[in-house]
Structures are given as structure tokens and as C-alpha cells.
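The material for today's practical consists of a large collection of protein records. There is nothing in a record beyond a sequence line and a structure line. As an example, a complete record with its sequence and its C-alpha cells follows:
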Amino acid sequence: MTRELPTALLMFISSRYAEARVYAAITAQGFDDITIAQSRLMMGIDDEGTRLTVLAERARVAKQTATALVDKLERAGYVERVPDPTDGRARLVRFTPRTVAALPLARAEEERIEADWTAHLGERRMRQLRETLTMLRSLTDPAASAPDTGP
């Protein structure tokens, strides 16, 4: 008897599929000196930059691992460390123009994935999937802001 796969594993399989497609799209365009692990860490960088400890938490890796990944990304020209304007002792990891040039390629592939999934599931189911996953985010994503509970 075959066991039904847990929902979390089904989400993981779909997520890894999308991740692999985006990674393949950017590497095919010449951004081929980055690893999947480095790209996962980069997904946690905010436009204005992000502290290394926050990146480690978002990627769910040890601070030492995040440091090693950022060091390699910095050497390859994808990120830079800059002073945090809110705390002179801290530094932010920020995208360089090289990464900014790759972002539209990644976003375009994300849009193609969304279109493929919508074609497969249909508009209604895709909308329900997005709504459901958005609801789960407040429970599962440490980077998500806490819901406003009002006064």
C-alpha cells in the first residue's frame, strides 16, 4: 500500500521544482558562477540590504554558513557589505548592479512558472492555492510580519 505524501513534502517538491527552473534560467544567461545554496541565501536580501544574522535566520542556516556564502557571493561580485545606517557597528548585505541585472531574468521565469501552474490547475484553484499559502506564511515564515490584531 502506498502512503499518501504529507502536504509539507508536496509543497517542498513544488518549491524545489520552481527553484531549479529559476536557477537554470539565470545560469543559462551567464550568471553561472553561483550555487543553489548561494541563491537561496540571496532570496532573503531586502532591496535596502539585510543584516547577516537576519539572512541566516531567513535561510535557516547557521550564521557561519551564511557568512561563508556571503563571502563567496561578495568575491563573485553579487553582493557587497555596507554600513547599516541605523547602527554604525552593523553591516548590511546588499545587491550589486550585477545581481540587479539578473533579477529581471529570475522574475520572468517566476512568471512563466505561475502561468504554467495556472494553466495546469485553472484560475480558481491557482487563486485558492495562493490564498492558502499566503495564510500559512504567517505560521511558517520567520520573515513574515506578525498579523495586525488591532487595539
Summary: The helical segments are 7-28, 36-42, 52-59, 63-75, 97-121, 123-140. The two ends are 52 Å apart (CA to CA).
